[in-house]
Amino acid sequence: MDVQLTLKILQTVLGSVGIFGNFVVGVVIAKVPAMRTLTNAFIFHQAVIDFLGSLLIVLDSNIVIPAVLHRNAVIAALQCFILESNVILWVIYVASTLNLVMLTTERYVAIVYPFKYVTYFGKKQATGMLVAVWVMAIGYKGTRFLYRQIVDRACVFTSLSTAVSLAGGIVAFLVEYLIPLIFMTFCYVHIILQLKKASSTVHVEPSTGQQGDNSMSGSLLRARRNTLKTLFIVFATYTICWSPNQIAFFMFNFGFPLNLNGAFYLISVALVQLNCCINPIIYSFKYKQFQTGVRVLMKPCCPKLAPAREGESVAVALSHR
């Protein structure tokens, strides 16, 4: 009981931080013209998804579903199939993972195949990808309510055969965790190799006589590295937050004991929920373009905030095109 109470308090705190942080990210990207790049469109979408997830975490941790469902059949169905099953929250979790995959893909094509970038990542294509995130998430995880049924005004798990339960666990592990993890790992390894190759080709600009790292090419490369480093930390955080829960659930489907009310499982769930609020903190400390956007947005009320260097700002903007 103490563990569950602690988890409830932790969920409320995490959710509140996530609501505030993701709201700030969304406002900065929406209000600062220089932030309106294609990469930031995916980051904005990630912030919207995580904002909704954080909001639902707070609601879920503070709304108690009664053991005896409402007499009205419609209200009882909502209590069981929507609230008790957490179907909306899990749709958001899957959408968050898929959007992170899309964001990684966008950076991968931009850096590894720059001449094909405009073809594959125009506004229409990007919009289609963002819509596809929700279509796939709802289509895949929207069936979660099928695992619940109402029996004598009580919401209970649907009895599934061992084979069906095992197959469902394997599919969930692959689709929600392992395949995205392998794909994003491949992309980041390839991107890092490509950037190392690009760094060796940055040379002295004849017009200035400065070294490459001080030239526009050097600034552009540094901006790309900063974006990549930020997104890699987001990816690493995703891996850390999701791994315990996914591995535990995978082993559970193979017959290993798992106490769904035990400390380990509840902590693994809290880590998943932490993933919804951690990204704004990462942007604040590591993403230089976001830091610049915050300074620009706050400059009217805080005139002492110094703008970024012009050359660096231009490079940062170009690095996302």
UniProtKB/TrEMBL annotation:
Belongs to the G-protein coupled receptor 1 family. GO terms for molecular function: G protein-coupled receptor activity. Keywords: G-protein coupled receptor, Membrane, Receptor, Transducer, Transmembrane, Transmembrane helix. Residues 21-283 form the G-protein coupled receptors family 1 profile domain. This is G-protein coupled receptors family 1 profile domain-containing protein. It comes from the Eukaryota. InterPro entries: GPCR_Rhodpsn, GPCR_Rhodpsn_7TM. GO terms for cellular component: membrane. It comes from Patiria miniata (Bat star). Pfam families: 7tm_1. The chain crosses the membrane at residues 12-30, 42-69, 81-105, 125-142, 177-195, 231-252, 264-285. It is found in: Membrane.
